[in-house]
């Protein structure tokens, strides 16, 4: 047994087979000048793959050279082997019908449903059998001829005896056998082999298998050995590796930009939120359409969760029902049961609400936070909308912030992601006032497109949390998918995210740089 670090062990019999193939192949090339690898393997009884292995070894030493071509190889299917052994389905079906006839149900019980499926129609086509209607409910299958000749079996036997050579078979017969899936063709790579520059009938196994070892270096024997030349241009074996999805590449860039701008990242690992944090804490009324089942995913189990921070919840309730700090509220009866319902968060602003409440406790310190994570909405899916997507969100909390501060922060961020031209349009959001939609100019399409939303959080949201007078919070958000689609040229969001994604795209798309 021979082995080394880079090869699996090879048995002595394997080496003998290899030597036999090598000796025969070299002699064949000498006698005929050009040898077909497939015909050689079939005539000598060697596996074709083993012949190719020996050929590659001899080519590496310039003993042989070759050219490749494609060859159509024919073979019998498993069903054909059964036909040769037992006869064709139509012959089996005919032989199972007694002279007095038999019902279809009984015939199926004798030969089986699969044989009936393939054989009965051919029996009718060949006029071997007929159907005799005995009564309204009974039909008998009877023999129409006294004897038959199983041509299909004979054709397969002849094709097998010819070595499955299509040239020795009538084209119409071969076409019929192929249609019935009794013979199959496959394409095989074959080699036309000729002698190489260093062709020789005799050479030692030692020269072929010689590999540089530590012992050769130590005793100096490497100087007299004949080594196989190294091919430094050969491509190495492909190694399995992981790849970042385009969304994660763009997310990584956005995260680096926001950290560079002085923002801190919020924890977003909670997909399930109570309606209180997702809606009520943001001063969004409980009758708002966004809280309906056609827009939001509600959990069945657990359907609700207890409210924490009860004092804060009471202040939120008061603000919804009666208002405060100059607001008259929404003027409705706020329901705690509605507020306790569990949902899949519809926006990461629920995370911002939790962080703002935490920030408002104790002495206030100005902060800048951001988050990038997944949200869920019960939307109709099309080329630009999915039921789940990723939201990029940021806010700044400080004294006496204005709309000008918000515009400056947004303009700076979009400039850093490659959209230097932005403009703003007044909009409405339940929890920000004033609110603005953000539009960016695309140099690729030469059009303005909506790229985000923004605004200043309303006092009705901030005061129940406990923020002191004069503290304002400016916030903005955008989807992660829209800029990724623009960056990588996707026209359909389902080609970027979801079960239809081509994994080759994930491996082959370039890095994201803005």
TrEMBL record:
Its EC number is 6.1.1.20. It is found in: Cytoplasm. Its cofactor is Mg(2+). GO terms for biological process: phenylalanyl-tRNA aminoacylation. Residues 249-510 form the Aminoacyl-transfer RNA synthetases class-II family profile domain. Keywords: Aminoacyl-tRNA synthetase, ATP-binding, Cytoplasm, Ligase, Magnesium, Metal-binding, Nucleotide-binding, Protein biosynthesis. It is an enzyme of class 6 (ligase). GO terms for molecular function: ATP binding; metal ion binding; phenylalanine-tRNA ligase activity; tRNA binding. Belongs to the class-II aminoacyl-tRNA synthetase family. Phe-tRNA synthetase alpha subunit type 2 subfamily. NCBIfam families: pheS, PRK04172.1. This is phenylalanine--tRNA ligase.
């Amino acid at each position: 047994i021979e082995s080394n670090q880079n090869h699996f062990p090879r048995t002595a019999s394997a080496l003998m087979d290899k030597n036999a193939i090598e000796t025969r192949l070299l002699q064949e090339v000498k006698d005929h000048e050009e040898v077909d690898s497939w015909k050689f393997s079939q005539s000598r009884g060697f596996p074709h793959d083993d012949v190719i292995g020996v050929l590659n070894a001899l080519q590496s030493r310039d003993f042989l050279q070759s050219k490749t071509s494609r060859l159509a190889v024919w073979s019998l299917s498993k069903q054909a082997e059964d036909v040769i052994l037992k006869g064709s389905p139509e012959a089996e079906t005919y032989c199972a019908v007694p002279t007095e006839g038999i019902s279809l149900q009984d015939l199926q019980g004798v030969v089986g449903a699969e044989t009936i499926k393939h054989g009965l129609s051919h029996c009718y086509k060949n006029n071997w059998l007929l159907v005799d209607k005995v009564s309204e409910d009974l039909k008998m299958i009877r023999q129409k001829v006294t004897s038959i000749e199983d041509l299909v079996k004979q054709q397969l036997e002849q094709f097998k005896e010819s070595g499955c050579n299509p040239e020795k078979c009538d084209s119409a017969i071969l076409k019929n056998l192929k249609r019935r899936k009794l013979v199959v063709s496959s394409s095989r790579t074959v080699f036309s082999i000729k002698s190489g520059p260093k062709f020789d009938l005799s050479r030692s196994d030692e020269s072929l298998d010689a590999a540089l070892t530590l012992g050769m270096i130590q005793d100096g024997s490497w100087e007299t050995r004949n080594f196989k030349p190294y091919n430094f241009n050969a491509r190495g074996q492909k190694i399995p590796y992981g790849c970042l999805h385009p969304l994660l590449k763009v997310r990584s860039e956005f995260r680096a930009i926001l950290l560079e701008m002085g923002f801190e990242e919020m924890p977003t690992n909670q997909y399930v939120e109570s309606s209180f944090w997702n809606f009520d804490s943001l001063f969004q009324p409980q009758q708002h359409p966004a809280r309906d089942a056609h827009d939001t995913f509600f959990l069945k189990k657990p359907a609700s969760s207890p409210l924490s921070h009860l004092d804060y919840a009471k202040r939120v309730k008061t603000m919804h029902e009666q208002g405060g700090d100059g607001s008259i509220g929404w003027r409705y009866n706020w329901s705690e049961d509605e507020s306790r319902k569990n949902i899949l968060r519809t926006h990461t602003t629920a995370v911002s609400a939790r962080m703002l409440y935490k920030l408002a406790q104790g002495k206030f310190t100005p902060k800048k936070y951001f988050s990038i994570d997944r949200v869920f909405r019960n939307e109709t899916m099309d080329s630009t909308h999915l039921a789940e997507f990723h939201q990029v969100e940021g806010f700044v909390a400080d004294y006496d912030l204005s709309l000008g501060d918000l515009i400056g922060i947004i303009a700076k961020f979009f400039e850093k992601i490659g959209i230097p031209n932005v403009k703003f349009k007044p909009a409405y959001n339940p929890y920000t006032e004033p609110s603005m939609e953000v539009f960016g100019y695309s140099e690729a399409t030469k059009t303005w497109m909506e790229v985000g939303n923004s605004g200043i959080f309303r006092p009705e949201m901030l005061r129940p949390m406990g923020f002191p007078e004069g503290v304002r919070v400016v916030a903005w958000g955008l989807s992660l998918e829209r800029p990724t689609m623009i960056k990588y040229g996707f026209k359909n969001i389902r080609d970027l995210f979801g079960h239809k994604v081509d994994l080759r795209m994930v491996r082959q798309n370039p890095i994201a740089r803005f």
